[in-house]
Amino acid sequence: MTLLYAVVLVAVAAAVVAGVLYARRTPKPGELRDSAPDESWLSRPQPGDIWWADVPFREGTGGKVRPCVVLRTHRRRVDVLRITSQDKSDRSDHLRIPTKGWDPKATHDSYVDLSEPFRLNDRAFSRKAGRMSTSAWSAVREQHPTGWAG
């Protein structure tokens, strides 16, 4: 009986780990839709939107509210790229974007960090700032799969 219990426990643990890993993976382009699955999704952050959200620091301890661009919208979470106002013009993993359209107080352009998407819970988003320009969004889409996963 103890051996059977151990086998069942290991099987359940393996299933949980597999489910978590599957949920965290980046969807393949064929698994993403170009439009929202239904109207209930339209009030949520949409691919190409710029939102203010609580984004974690890369080091993993804490975070701050900063602008980010939405890559993919899932059922209860959203994949984003961070936007920084620091000059990153010397880096190939950052894309310069116009800022005036979504941050009227800005005095200079910002940079999208193309290197590492973050997965955020819906509660992390505070307010929509605007949309990426068509040319900037095209450049982001060349680097990352985008769309609705649901």
Automatic annotation (TrEMBL):
<dbReference type="GO" id="GO:0003677">
    <property type="term" value="F:DNA binding"/>
</dbReference>
<protein>
    <submittedName>
        <fullName>PemK-like, MazF-like toxin of type II toxin-antitoxin system</fullName>
    </submittedName>
</protein>
<keyword id="KW-1277">Toxin-antitoxin system</keyword>
<dbReference type="InterPro" id="IPR011067">
    <property type="entry name" value="Plasmid_toxin/cell-grow_inhib"/>
</dbReference>
<dbReference type="InterPro" id="IPR003477">
    <property type="entry name" value="PemK-like"/>
</dbReference>
<comment type="similarity">
    <text>Belongs to the PemK/MazF family.</text>
</comment>
<dbReference type="Pfam" id="PF02452">
    <property type="entry name" value="PemK_toxin"/>
</dbReference>
